[in-house]
Specification:
Length: 173
């Protein structure tokens, strides 16, 4: 059965990649969405049977799917075509923020002094998810013209970075 799951994940990954490739052209974009959606259905079909939900957990997941699907559907139907980049930025930020929160919950589950091989992936996911969240909010704000598109710079950033690195290296000993 493990081989079947691995093949399903491989097929899902191939479909995701093909879907992304098809999204690069307006002529094939609709088919790209269908291809990527098929990949997601296969990935979910391979993942859900391996999860061991409690009844409360299943209800929470179902509520999340209904609410998220509703928000996504309303957003996709009501947002003007010229505002799609802003919507994509917000949805991407929500995904990054969710990933960071899940990683925080997982890290807290490990206790006060988890081994590095358990803590490092969670910390890495927290950093990546947080950067994705923050970057997506900045992208949204720039696209919506809520903030300037010019780079935000501060005087002496390299010296501050060096001081911060020195401080972190001393405090980690």
């Amino acid at each position: 059965m493990t081989t079947l799951y691995a093949l399903a994940y491989l097929l899902a990954a191939v479909l995701f990649i093909l879907g992304l490739k098809q999204l690069s052209s307006p002529r094939t974009a609709r088919n790209g969405n269908y291809t990527a959606a098929a990949g997601m259905i296969i990935a979910l079909a391979a993942t859900v049977p391996q999860l061991h939900f409690t009844s409360a957990g299943a209800i929470i997941v179902l509520i999340g799917v209904i609410v998220g699907g509703g928000v996504g559907t309303i957003g996709a139907r009501q947002v003007k075509m010229t505002a799609i980049p802003q919507m994509v930025a917000l949805f991407n930020g929500a995904g990054g923020g969710a990933a960071a929160l899940v990683a925080v919950a997982e890290l807290l589950r490990f206790g006060s002094h988890p081994p590095i091989n358990e803590a490092l992936p969670s910390v890495f996911s927290i950093v990546i998810g947080s950067v994705s969240f923050a970057g997506s909010l900045v992208a949204f704000a720039k696209l919506q013209e809520l903030m300037t598109g010019t780079p935000i710079t501060y005087p002496g950033p390299s010296s501050r970075c060096l001081r911060s690195l020195r401080f972190l290296s001393r405090s980690s000993r």
